[in-house]
Specification:
heterodimer, A: 368 residues, alpha/beta, Aspartate Aminotransferase, domain 1, Aspartate Aminotransferase, domain 2, seven-stranded mixed beta sheet, three-stranded antiparallel beta sheet, 13% strand, globular, B: 402 residues, 2 domains
């Protein structure tokens, strides 16, 4: 098994030690949190403590937080639950979890930096029927941070609801339902250093009774059936609390960008407000999948877009929406994990220039 | 009566609620741990080595689950648990049929199904389907003729659980599935309580869809699977969409560590089920024999023959379940399914087999499992018998240990 220098944190973050400890402790608690006996009550306490910690972390009330299996389900629950009977408007660069749930929606365009056009949003909302707008807080491919607070105010003025996919933002930038003002916020455990298999939808008090997507035993106040995955949830909460205290990754990210741009790479969305751990680097003329494979062979794990669509060789819808044309199929995503060090930068600096030169040479005869 | 085989000390608390959830086997936990820590890749990141490692682990696990239930690995879709699997199977089959112009609208299930099956079927009434809830006999089993009569109307889907979560009875799935097939209906079975406890052969039984849970089989919570038959292929509409994982049927990052845990749990069950069934049958008989010796008039609910080894559902003659549980706080048993434990509603399963609400209130579910010892069973009998006889709470533990 080869070891890789991991620069694909937006696909999944390494588990934080605090989360690992919480997972293991919760594994010891055998009970089903719905059972009334001692083992069940112990499990229930872990569940409710986790709920309180997460609600506090993300600016909501514990009773308004619904645990799900992850970010995709949280997005789907919000869109199905809040969007019923409403017109749907989704940002052009949303994750597929949102795009797929909002079939037939109107698209909110973004500018060349990937930032949503709020003038266009106002125009879409003006006079139309009641809408549900979906706008992510931070983009998974470019790290672009959307003006969610402004969008929320705009939506509220127009009687529209706003759902925010905060999966990539949570644990990386300030992410508070109360401060930003949307009606719902989706977060995922494994994108902030918790275990896979848990997520949450945090609802604003006025919309906290959503219809369930998964019917069942009445858990989560009837909003999500099924035995809650206790160890994953405990790890999720521990990771979210720990994620408030990480070093700023921007200097490492900037060093990586300096290496790449020196080789002719173009930063996609680099001028926008964005996550400190993410950069999207296009190498003109070189297919993204070739870059990713070459870097992988050299022990560097990056991606050519969202992990879920990895393997499909299609140009990124995010970069296409930013008007990048052919570059949309020539960009890689480099995303630093919470535990990144200068060793990550050094490894990148060793391999990226070699990759860029080799692939350009391979292309040269055809380009000539 | 107290034989020399009795070990000195039971576990504390004594956990006899293995139908609500099971302890994650330490061997399962060991198998999962590396996937939490050093091998943390996203199994869908197939462009780099950390992703492909995780993907390979997920596929190994898929093979272990398939082997335990008599399926092909390609027929398994991973989910967050049996509740989600049941929702996808039932709503997914119905909605797909609706979209493709199938005119069958009847969906048949049984009154004693898990709540999530009953709710999924009932919800579909709002989408134009015709739910039918069949009664069961006093022994908890479905009378085949009752199903046959219901199938006289062209039926889209039949959903019948293999093993009941409260009374532990085992339905004759091969026979019932054959009847469903013959009538041209799809057949779904919730096997959450059956996996690892009784032999299953989904391919041979001609089942179309089956729901599996991790935490009921000594695996982790937060993972399950749905068996979707391939030949002939069963088509479903997904419950929600997204990244298109699991062939579009179930989007969202697959939780690789939990899936590895489910796979290991199934692998262990495959090799240990036969021995464990013998041991649990002996424990159950021991518990029942001793309970009958101590408490005359105690009654077993559900068939005593067609039942999984570890489960007993007992109606006590002279004390309520709530009182017994309160008086023996270090014994974990339950009054019914865990999801509805917090409510004081009498069990609809017990009602369906003819118990009065008053008798249902005197009923306990006792679920023995892999980590249950003879000492645990003996402690449970002694403590419950003392509590039932009205012994002061302070004396029960001492009496039980005597």
């Amino acid at each position: 098994m080869r070891t890789a220098m991991y620069l694909d944190a937006n696909a999944t973050e390494p588990l934080r030690p605090e989360a690992r400890a919480a997972v293991l402790a919760a594994m010891e608690a055998t009970g089903n949190p719905s059972s009334v006996h001692a083992a069940g009550r112990r499990a229930r306490r872990i569940l409710e403590d986790s709920r309180e910690a997460l609600a506090a972390r993300f600016g909501g009330r514990p009773g308004d937080l619904v645990f799900t299996s992850g970010g995709t389900e949280a997005d789907a629950l919000a869109i199905r639950g809040l969007g019923a009977g409403r017109r749907l408007i989704v940002g052009a660069t949303e994750h597929d979890a949102v795009r797929a749930a909002a079939d037939g929606a109107d698209v909110l365009p973004v500018d060349a930096r990937g930032v949503a056009d709020l003038t266009a949003l106002a125009a879409l909302l003006d006079g139309g029927p009641p809408a549900l707008v979906c706008l992510m807080l931070a983009n998974n491919e470019t790290g672009t941070i959307q003006p969610v607070a402004e969008a929320a105010a705009l939506c509220r003025r127009h009687g529209a609801l706003l759902h925010v996919d905060a999966v990539q933002a949570a644990g990386r930038v300030a992410t508070s339902l109360a401060a930003l003002g949307p009606h719902s916020l989706a977060v995922s455990s494994h994108k902030l250093g918790g275990p896979m298999g848990a997520g949450a939808l945090l609802l604003a008090p006025e919309v906290s009774t959503v219809a369930p997507l998964i019917a069942g035993g009445g858990q989560e106040r009837g909003r999500r059936g099924g035995t809650p995955p206790l160890p994953a949830i405990a790890g999720f909460a521990a990771a979210a609390v720990a994620a408030g205290e990480v070093a700023d990754l921007a200097p490492l990210r900037d060093a990586i960008e300096a290496v790449a741009t020196a080789c002719g790479a173009i930063m996609c969305g680099g001028d926008a407000p964005r996550l400190a751990n993410t950069t999207c680097l296009a190498l003109p003329g070189v297919r993204a999948d070739a870059q990713v494979i070459a870097l992988d062979l050299d022990g560097i794990a990056v991606s050519a877009g969202a992990a879920c669509s990895s393997g499909k060789v299609t140009a990124s819808h995010v970069l296409a929406a930013m008007g990048l044309g052919a570059l949309a199929g020539q960009a890689i995503r480099v995303s630093l994990p919470w535990n990144a060090t200068t060793a990550h930068v050094a490894a990148f600096a060793r391999t990226y220039p070699r990759m860029a030169e080799r692939l350009r040479q391979a292309l040269a005869p055809r380009a000539a | 009566m107290t034989g020399s085989d009795q070990p000195p000390r039971p576990n504390r608390p004594v956990y006899l609620d293995n139908q609500a959830t099971t302890r994650c086997d330490p061997r399962v936990l060991s198998a999962m741990l590396p996937w939490f820590t050093e091998h943390y890749g996203n199994p869908h990141s197939v462009e780099h080595v950390m992703g492909t490692e995780a993907e390979a682990a997920v596929e190994d696990a898929r093979g272990h689950v398939a082997a335990l239930i008599g399926a092909d690995a390609k027929e398994l879709v991973f989910t967050s648990g049996a509740t989600e699997s049941n929702n996808i199977a039932i709503k997914g089959a119905a909605r797909h049929a609706l979209r493709t112009g199938n005119e069958r609208r009847r969906i048949i299930t049984v009154a004693t199904e898990h709540k999530c099956v009953l709710e999924s079927v009932a919800d579909l009434a709002g989408e134009g389907f015709e739910p039918v809830f069949l009664p069961v006999r006093a022994d908890g089993l479905l009378e085949p003729d009752v199903l046959r009569a219901a199938l006289a109307v062209p039926t889209l889907l039949v959903s019948i659980m293999a093993v009941n979560n409260e009374i532990g009875v085992v339905q004759d799935i091969p026979a019932l599935a054959a009847m469903g097939k013959q009538a041209g209906a799809l057949f779904h079975t919730d096997i959450a309580q059956a996996v690892g406890k009784i032999p299953l052969d989904l391919t041979g039984w001609k089942v179309d869809l089956a729901s599996i849970s991790g935490h009921k089989v000594y695996g982790p919570k937060g993972v399950g699977a749905l068996y979707v038959r391939r030949r002939p292929r069963v088509r479903l509409a997904p419950l929600f969409s997204g990244g298109g994982q699991e062939r579009g049927l179930r989007s969202g990052t697959l939780p690789a560590p939990l899936i590895v845990g489910l796979g290991e749990a199934c692998r262990l069950a495959s090799s240990e089920m036969a021995e464990e069934a013998k041991r649990l049958t002996a424990l159950r008989d021991r518990l029942l024999d001793r309970m009958r010796d101590r408490i005359s008039g105690i009654q077993v609910n559900g068939s005593e023959q067609a039942r999984i080894p570890g489960n007993l559902n007992l109606t006590f003659p002279a004390a309520t379940a709530a009182d017994l549980m309160a008086r023996v706080p270090d014994l974990c048993v339950s009054t019914g399914s865990a999801c509805s434990s917090a409510t004081i509603e009498p069990s609809y399963v017990l009602r369906a087999i003819g118990l009065t609400d008053e008798a249902a209130a005197r009923t306990l579910r006792i679920g023995m499992g892999r980590f249950t010892s003879a000492a645990d069973v003996d402690y449970a009998v002694a403590a419950l018998a003392a509590a039932h006889a009205g012994a002061p709470v302070a004396d029960i533990e001492r009496l039980a240990q005597a």
